[in-house]
Amino acid sequence: MRSKIIAALLFLLLSPVVCARETTAETKGASFFSAHISRITHQCVYDAKQFGMTFKNTVAAPVRWKPTDWLTAGAIGGLTTYLYQDKKNDRKWFRFSRLNQKYGEYEVYPKTFFEKTYMRLLEYPISHISFGIAGATVLGNIFDLLPLHHLSAELLQSIAMSTGLATFGNFILAERRPSEGGKMRYFSRNGHGISGHGTFYTSLSGPLNKYISRFDEDDSTLMLISKSFAKTLIYGIPLLLAYSRLRHESSLNYPSKQAHPSHHAWNVLLALSLGYATGEFVALQNRW
Q1: Which among 13, 47, 53, 221 is most buried, taking Cβ atoms within 10 Å?
Q2: Both 102 and 196 in a single domain?
Q3: Could you please report the per-residue DSSP string of 92-152?
Q4: At CA 205, angle to CA 112 and CA 117, rounded to 5?
Q5: C-alpha to C-alpha distance for 58 and 76, rounded to whole angstroms
Q6: Which has more confidence, 7 or 172?
Q7: Domain total for the chain?
Q8: How wide is the angle at C-alpha 55 spanned by C-alphas 50 and 60, nearest 5°?
């Protein structure tokens, strides 16, 4: 009887302590979860504001251009005009036979490992790349991986803005594809005056260079060599992929029956200029 009374008293004395500990653990878990959600929400709001600010500064950038910037734009415009006037000779200047069809042949014939790899890369949909970058942005935010989040967020900004500018440019310079006759139209839908694929590829270079291959003052010789190699890949691969828009519309797995390129050379030049410039500008604008 006495032992039961002692056990009951101990239960009454210790139960508040146990309940308090359980309540504290639940409170800590709830506070951690709410803090995590709050951080993710805050980062999403900040990303949206940063995108709006970067877009505004990109559109207004020509107002703050220096004379050298206007000279560069003028040189690109002059070269673009020349290529437009001479677009019938694109085949002569920009064709690489092993990566293109000949009339009467339905298949390309790449021989080297580089050529075969190049052809396979061209078949990879750019939409998958965009979804992958968007997924990296979300994962970087959820798991608080700031370098991954910042890089992928800048890549998304660059893709969105360069694609938007290219779409607007294609409405103004609504040229038909070479396979459709190549006739120039102005202010019309479904234009192809600026290569969308070329713009997409080259817009990635600026943010990638900022986070991977940017030179620092304290870099060692080995680091400088490594970054130089990375920089060559970061700027060179998009250039090669953009060149693919001058190739004839055929691939390893899906040969075409018509030997026509996807774009004229002047379309690709505008895409290179727009993509590289937008990527570099986005990389300079973002300060995380």
Answers
A1: 47
A2: yes
A3: HHH--GGGS--TT--S----SHHHHHHHHHHTS-HHHHHHHHHHHHHHHHHTT-HHHHHHH
A4: 15
A5: 19
A6: 172
A7: 2
A8: 130
Q: Is residue 238 part of a domain?
A: yes
How far apart are the C-alpha atoms of 96 and 114, rounded to whole Å?
Answer: 14
- Cα angle 230-235-241, degrees, rounded to a multiple of 5: 120
Check: CB of residue 83 under 8 Å from CB of residue 269.
yes
Q: Which domain holds residue 30?
A: 1-42
Q: Are 101 and 108 in contact (CB under 8 A)?
A: yes
19 and 85 together in one domain: no
Q: What is the pTM assigned to this prediction?
A: 0.80
pLDDT tens digit sequence for 237-281: 999 888 888 876 555 555 555 557 788 999 999 999 999 999 999
